[in-house]
Amino acid sequence: MIPDSKITGRQQDARTVDGVVGAPVVAREPEQEALSSRLLRDYDAGSFFFASPKRTMLARGVFATVPDAGGTNSLDGLPERVAAVLSASRDAAHDIPVAVGAVPFDGKVAAQLVVPMTIQRAGPMVFDGAAAARSPLAGQYTLRPVPEPAAYKDGVAAALKLMQEGPLRKVVLSRSLHVDTASPVDLRQLLHNLARRNPHGYTFAVDLPQHADAAPGAGRRTLIGASPELLVARSGLQVLANPLAGSAARSPEPVEDHARATKLMASPKDLHEHAVVIDAVAEALRPFCKTLDVPKGPSLVSTQTMWHLSSRITGELKDPSITSLTLALAMHPTPAVCGHPTALAHTAIGNIEPFHRGYYTGTVGWCDANGDGQWAVTIRCAEADERTLRLFAGAGIVVGSTPEAELAETEAKFRAMLQALGVGLEVQP
């Protein structure tokens, strides 16, 4: 028995999943709230950190690794491989059989899931005035967009032409922004800044393997971000999905900000984009659920930089053996990050985007041996090496989209990471 491996707080809350009606809530006594801040301060590169609106998790070390499929698609049989590793960990008297990590956009790269040596859990993140945000960058940096803005607009135009000529209804096209720094990036400070700005979302850091062509002695690679979107959560038989689709940049001026929100709620283009996503998510969950509650229309949610159309879909599972990861992969990738129909959108992305997404628009989270867990959509994120960050942002292209508007949406979505880095917002050269 490893002393640090016990779940901090009430042991009976281990099955808690945020937002599921009837699920117990992690204790929020002052000492619990102080512990959540300590978990953030204790984060080091190589650990797994995951903060949601109701709880904070820090996992360290590797007790077991979920093996790769060994074929052409790393996602084939992934829930079964995770279940086998969790079962073996429990049989080996490991007292925290929980898999944590990241699943990629597609099976071209391997999922990064491990059973950690230790896990600490606490309540929601709480910040005081003394824990001020500071820049995680020391010295100079350079910004390099991939693709260039003009090339991205050409890609949007190409996607719109595909929709005019065939059955493609939506495709999500993304950009990356490379931030090269003179000194190592302070990942702990970056994570702190993201969590501070994202109290109602999902802040995460996941250790990734180095690229095959990395130089000997290269530092760690980390997936880090602050997602506003829950893919799926499971607690017992209760299921929650909260897809977001349809977005507008926020304004610092209150009247204009309210006008943008109102316009978003009435936008035929954005309502159509949202409906495509909700229909696909409901279709993916329905075979697993004996009841499924799908809202008739979206509501508004906001981050510090964006307005989003949101729908909370709740259900009750037919079979308790269906795990949170099984549900996540049944939904993944949703039209919110890929498009519709999925196969056509995936092909368009491969033909238009000049890079492979890796873990961007995948999912990050955890699943325990009971099948409970929580998975957030991997957006508003970056892949970080010692002196380089590769930021990502995307926009959903549907009939009615314009290249200029979609470019502006990606620039607005970059702001979450850029503001946490203390970098200016002018991402065009």
- Class by SSE composition: alpha+beta
By CATH reckoning, the class would read: Alpha Beta
- Poorly predicted regions are 1-29, 425-429
Strand content: 25-35%
The CATH level-2 architecture is identified as: 4-Layer Sandwich
Distance between the terminal alpha carbons, to the nearest Å? 55 Å
Mean pLDDT reading:
88
Biggest sheet details: 10 strands, antiparallel
How many DSSP H or I helices? 9
Kindly identify the CATH topology. Answer: Anthranilate synthase
Inertia-based shape: globular
Gyration radius, rounded: 20 Å
Describe the structure.
- β11 and β12 (238-242) form a beta hairpin.
- The protein has one domain (35-126, 142-210, 218-421): 4-Layer Sandwich (Anthranilate synthase), CATH 3.60.120.
- The chain is of the alpha+beta class and 429 residues long.
- It contains nine helices and 22 strands.
- The chain is globular and about 55 Å long.
- Residues 150-413 form the Chorismate-utilising enzyme C-terminal domain.
- One of its GO terms (biological process) is salicylic acid biosynthetic process.
- Pfam families: Chorismate_bind.
